[in-house]
Structures are given as C-alpha cells and as structure tokens.
C-alpha cells in the first residue's frame, strides 16, 4: 500500500509593533501583511483535517533572537497533530527547549548551515524524526553551482539562503540536501523563494532535484495556488508532503477540498 501524502498548513509568525506574536503572509519573502492570531489559526487547522502543522518564527534567525516559545506552547495546546517549529534554532539546547515547549519536530535552516554538526547532534540526542532541515532556495543562473537543471530552456542551480532568505550562502541546495540526509535529518523542508506567495504552483524543478537526490521524505513548500498544484508536486516531483499557507489562510480552498481532489485523482491521502 502506498504511503499517504500529507497536506500541511503553515503559519509564518513575527512580532508586531507591540511585541505580540502575529501571523504574516507575503510574496517572495517580502511585503508581509498581517493575517491573524497564531493560536486561533492553529486551532482552526487542527479542526480542519490537516495532517501536520508548521509554525515558523520568520525573523528569529535574522534578528539573532530565540524562538517565541510561549507562543509555541500556546499553539501546542491547540493542535493534536504533529507540530513542527522553526526559527532561531542554533544549538542542541534550542532543540531541547523547543521540543519541551510542545513541538514534535524542529525545523532548522541557518543554524544547520552555519554548523552542520547540529544535525548530527540533534539526531543522536532526540531522534532523526525530530530533525527537519529547512532550505530556503533561490534560482541562480551562473556557473557557481554543482547541480544544474533546465528551467524554461535555461540552465540554473539552486542556492541555499539564510536569515529568512536575506543572505546567500553559495551552497548548492542538492549537495546540502545530500549532506543533511547523511548527517541524520529525518525530513527535508524545501522552500522556494522564487515561488513564495505567487500561487503559480510549486517549484517543480527544485523539488524534483531534491527528491531525486535523497530518500529522506521531502516537504514541498511555496507557490501552491490550489489542489492541482498539490497534485503536480506529488506526481511530477515526487514530494511526500505539500505545504501551503495563503490558500488556506484566506479560505480560497479548504484542506478537505484539496484532499478530496487528490483522492479523486488517485493520490493516496488521509480523509
């Protein structure tokens, strides 16, 4: 029997002008607009049939601060599905404290790229299933990469970025995915800066390049505009899970609608 594909809503959380946690939505990691309260949105998605839930503190790494664990705890009290929390996780102690706050998994990007040993340490201490390596990828059309794909007739590679997509690293995404798997990552969370918030579909070349290179489960993120996009990323790129935000936040589609579309098109999902 084929493994079921997962549909995962995600909230991007930041501090508002008064220092309170709030959900924001943007395009290409920019032009963020207030969307709602993280705890209320968590409650909504828990009741809506989501397979998992992702909470990303989107400025913790860039600002050098810790993840907002009080808010994580409040969210964890409202969700009874696997909860992944990311943002500002730089040490094994950060992993421990985030899990203690109620997360089932931690998503690490900047901290792992700066110190890859964090993946190994975290996997050994807490189990591979807890360690999700997040990649904020962007296309580059130069000769500095290692793995190239054809996109609309042009050859490009994908670069890992850090601090919420603000800084390039020169690290090839596919090579990094392979290293993360070798070091013990339990999942790979692949975000496309180019597709983020566009609703034009997932970055299929990016997702497929990673899925083809590793056996670790891959979560596709960024660009989902509807059920057809989820179908495409599962059937053409080989993703194990599809993450979406805007289409769910603004009630353009429900999680149930997406799953029933997939089920009608012979993609195994949990209804």
Low-confidence stretches: none
Q: What gross morphology would you assign?
A: globular
Put simply, the count of helices is: 11
**Count of structural domains:** 1
Q: How large, in whole angstroms, is the Cα Rg?
A: 17 Å
Along the chain, the helix and strand elements come as: EEEHEHHEHEHHEEEEHEHEHEHH
Summarize the main sheet. 8 strands, parallel, barrel
CATH structural fold name: TIM Barrel
Counting helices, strands and paired strands, the structural category is alpha/beta
Task: Report the CATH architecture.
Answer: Alpha-Beta Barrel
Mean pLDDT across the residues is 93
CATH superfamily: Aldolase class I
- Assembly state of the chains shown: single chain
CATH class descriptor: Alpha Beta
> What gap, in angstroms, lies between the N and C termini?
16 Å
Strand order of the largest sheet: 1-4-5-6-7-11-12-13
**What proportion of the residues is helical, as a percent range?**
25-40%
Annotation, overall tally of beta strands: 13
Q: Proportion of β residues?
A: 25-35%
